[in-house]
Specification:
Blueprint (H helix, E strand, L loop, with lengths): L6 H19 L6 H8 L3 H7 L3 H26 L6 H12 L4 H17 L7 H24 L8 H20 L5 H13 L10
Length: 204
């Protein structure tokens, strides 16, 4: 009986190989041949699952996204039922920062992907929905806090959400480049949250 092939497992194997090559050499240096060699498979197999380099890059980013979602879900679950908006946002954004080696590995791939798509708008299209959903979620939490009296009423939730997400991305770049350490990054995040929330600051 022919062996049953787990196509998702093979796609993930190839994407993991891509992430290792990209972390070491950068996405621009990645080729289907390099990824095939790293994964220990043939170039033909890589092309079977990913017709183009763009498709392979997009799948690798989806793996990074899944890692981040799993970390955030675990951290939020640990908070217990009904965490305050500030606690929820601080925990979520903190988990998405590259504060340890596993998150740095994912962060390097995500950063390289953003650089790769800077001149390829069509490849970046899938990121637009993710960004819009994240901004809407953050803004929604700020509105909840404003209604509860724990966020400054003068704050524009949409503008504040954009600033928070941009801050997180910028801190990620600084962390990956070694310009600042984890403590400084979290302190900056807390300082910005202080501009939005009146009370309910969580303990570090």
């Amino acid at each position: 009986m022919p062996k049953r092939v787990d196509h998702q497992e093979r796609r993930t194997l190839i994407a993991d190989a891509l992430m290792r090559v990209a972390a070491e050499h950068g996405l621009e240096a990645v080729s289907l041949r390099h990824v095939a060699a790293e994964a220990g498979v043939s170039s033909g197999m890589v092309q079977h699952y990913f017709r183009t380099k763009d498709e392979m890059m997009a799948f690798a980013l989806s793996v990074v996204r899944e890692h981040g979602e799993a970390r955030v879900t675990a951290a939020l679950t640990a908070l217990g039922p009904a965490p305050s908006p500030r606690t929820l946002l601080r925990t979520m954004l903190g988990e998405l920062l590259p504060l340890d080696e596993a998150r740095r590995a994912d962060g390097r791939v995500a950063l390289a992907f953003l650089a790769y798509t800077a001149v390829r708008p069509a490849v970046a299209a899938g990121l637009h929905q993710d960004t819009a959903e994240m901004l809407a979620f953050i803004a929604g939490q700020i509105r909840v806090a404003q209604a509860a009296g724990t966020a400054r009423p003068a704050v524009d939730p949409d503008a504040a959400a954009t600033a928070l997400l941009a801050l997180m991305e910028g801190l990620g770049v600084y962390l990956l480049g070694g310009h600042i350490g984890p403590e400084a990054a979290l302190a900056a995040l807390d300082a910005h949250l202080d501009l939005i929330f009146d009370a309910d600051r969580p303990a570090s």
